[in-house]
Amino acid sequence: MVDEAPQSTEWMTMSDDVVVVKGYADLISDSKLRGDDPDVVGRELQALGGDTDYLVAWLPDWLVDEKDVELVGRSDNVVSGQVDYETEKAYLVVVDGDEIWLPKSVIRVYRTAGDVDLEIPLTRLDRFASNGGGSQ
User: Fold this and answer.
1) pTM confidence score
2) Does the structure show a pLDDT above 60 at 23?
């Protein structure tokens, strides 16, 4: 019988690349997040409500292809799941019942700074402007 590893919430501070989100501007200014990714990450962080047992992360395209992971919403690169175990170099995350190892060195983890309301706009202003002010 294999002993289970102790659970820890210290994983939040141990990633190589952690973004502490204080507001929606932090997401839209992040160079890794494209298209709907800022909205997807923001909504996922709000849904989790600061639960430290869960992880919201951006994965590079090659890792998404390699892991064949279930992505969040309309994103091509954002994943969210429960952290089951952590090593110095990777997280074992449960996503839709599947266990997936995510290497810390190539992902970006997002978490909120305390109890933050990200106030995600219904339509991002840059999209509104590029669509002629919303007119069709």
Assistant:
1) 0.76
2) yes
